[in-house]
Write the structure tokens for this entry.
Amino acid sequence: MNLARLDLNLVVALRALLEERNVTRAGRRVGLSQPAMSAALARLRRHFDDDLLARVGGHYELTALGQVLLDRTATAHDVLERLFASQADFDPARENREFKLMASDYAVAVFGAELARTVHEEAPGIRLRLTQTPPNITDDTATLLSATDGLFMPHGVISDFPATDLYDDRWVFLVSEDHPSVEDRLTRQDLARLPWVIYQRTYDAPAVRQLGMLGIEPRVEVSVDSFQLLPLMVARTRRIALVQARLARLMAPLAAVRAVEPPYEAVPLREALWWHPVHTHDAAHIWLRETAARVARRMTGTDGQRPPS
């Protein structure tokens, strides 16, 4: 396809039409008259050789191709916005913009909060939008990364994208403070007989794979999609949960739970900030990555300063 022959303004019109499913509302959204938006829809129909919007009764519905294009158009629109917002110079003290970052609730609690405090102090016009990492991150990594400013995720889940390492963590088990049969350490027999609470997404995949290699099959009683819910589901029960040590330290005082060491040498965890190569040389992204790395050094005490307690 010859991109030079395409009118990229049609991307804006296409997104509005597919999301609004109404020519008048779509035109109002992008500042075009109804005749101008109707003309844009006609051009799009010719290009795709498809109606895109099909009248059903008194309203329009998306055709099969229109449904496919719905998410792709939103992603393409975001990529174009980020492309044309690229800067040769970036002054964080004077800029006014938003960075969108994907992260698990673990990464937000352990690292994102400290990053947000630093940005607040040093760059008052900068906003951070932290969104939950989507479940399909491993299926469509390139597309998702191209439409955001970065992804906080440990090594071992995705690869082949640039990343800045931030900090190390390790896995521990959570048990209730008053657990009747667990003292200072779990045994492998405990892992087999006690009920589990597990995180149901793929971000702890290396740790889960290790359990399988050790022949440990968790007896799952509860599964949740938030790391921060694990302690609440463990407290005042016989359940156990595998969780990151840094998060356990944050949550233990709030949920009447305690951390105990695993009965095996657990695989370590190294958190990183990942990004799409399209952002590598953008001045704003360089600042964001350098700031994240500096916050991580301060947090881990590797910048010569004492880490916060």
Summary: Residues 64-84 form the longest helix (21 residues).
